[in-house]
Amino acid sequence: MSAGAIPPPPDSIPVPEAVRWVVRTLEEAGYETWTVGGAVRDALAGRPSGDWDLATRAPPEEVRRIFRRTVPVGIEHGTVGVLARDGTMYEVTTFRRDVETTGRHAVVAFAETLLEDLERRDFTVNAVAWHPLRKELFDPHRGAEDLRRRVLRTVGDPSERFAEDYLRVLRALRFAGRYELDIDPETWSALKAATPHLGVLSPERVREELWKVLEGDASPARALELYRVSGALREVAPELSAVAGGEEVGTPAWRSTLSVVERISQRRPALRLTALLGDLGAPPIREEDPPLPHDPGPAGSPRRLRGMMRSAALLTRLRHSNATIARISALVGAGPDLPRLDAADSDVRRWLARVGPGRVPDLVRWAAARSRVEDGSGPSPTEVAGAVRRLRGELASGVALDVGSLALSGRDLIRMGLKPGPHFGTILDALLERVLEEPEANVKDRLEPWALELARESEGG
Ligand code: ATP
Ligand code: MG
User: Taking the complete model, does pTM exceed 0.85, yes or no?
Assistant: First the structure.
């Protein structure tokens, strides 16, 4: 591409008045201050800017002295939160430079100049500063040009920059995906060579990065595909890499999965992650697998059960909360299919009893996303609509779907003269099975004789 084809940077970037006020206040106190990082990059890319971060020559204690309302959000790294009049908190960070790096984190010292501060930033597109009062772009590494040419490259030597902090490998994949950038060849080969070191990163940082892809990117498929091609997926989620087909060629199943993830709203990152892990049960049992539990929970087949256990193991390793692990792994176990159009009513109820009514909305959204992928891997929109109608009907009728909704309880069994014990669970499960078959049977008069019969059987057996 010839340089002439690249339009010049914009004359101006719209910056909120509150941010300009922070900059003005610091400059009037004698300290040079700029907006930097992601918000400037987003503005240059023509996207709405999120968090406006500021970089200043003022030391943190000066920032705290100058503003009335401040929060020491990351004071040890030189970051002070300044509460502006619009109620927003802006992060003001003193110019920094790296003193020592370990591959995992950096020891920083305060710096005198913005140039030093930009030098320690990871990619040229992230190393751009905008002065909102002077309307001046400071872009010593030509990040604006890279953004317009759609190139991602590190500031400085790529191998060194990745070795300083391997998280930059994953950040590169995210930015390249989100802004549709081609990774510069030198940066790309250094990135691929760095992937075997991703294991030094704390699982929490890897998890945060992955979530940024899932919730920050309207089209996460590109970044996720780069995870596979670069070899990063193999390091951070080997079980997923096995399903994806490794680095060479992606499997058709992986391509379908990415299309499904793409069709789930970014406001539902947990469901996107569910869809991403949805196929984990496909490979047969392997040595590294966690043991399968006796109670399959919402899983309807051995394959779904394996998927459930493998997702739980993966999410645990990446230090997700127990609530998230439980929610996602149960959905992986329960999904991805809704009841078939030709299913009997009792099968629809059995399906509901197994997956749990609370999971239906997410399972429907997942199925709807699959139906919009036109490779024949998912259900048709008609099938999804039909299943939704059937499920709504059953749910609206108020049929018993769990033991707690039976007309007969453990207490009733005691009243009937039965001796309490673990067989109560077996009896109630069997009653539920009959009620799922025939909802009208959920009345005391019908259930009692069955319960007595079941109790006799369990004594006899
Ligand atoms: P987003 O907020 O959309 O995730 P961002 O670019 O704002 O993207 P942040 O993590 O908020 O990313 O970081 C703000 C800025 O700090 C970046 O633009 C970059 O200049 C710098 N930065 C962040 N993390 C690193 C890192 N690991 N190495 C070098 N520079 C970094
Ligand atoms: Mg940011």
Answer: yes
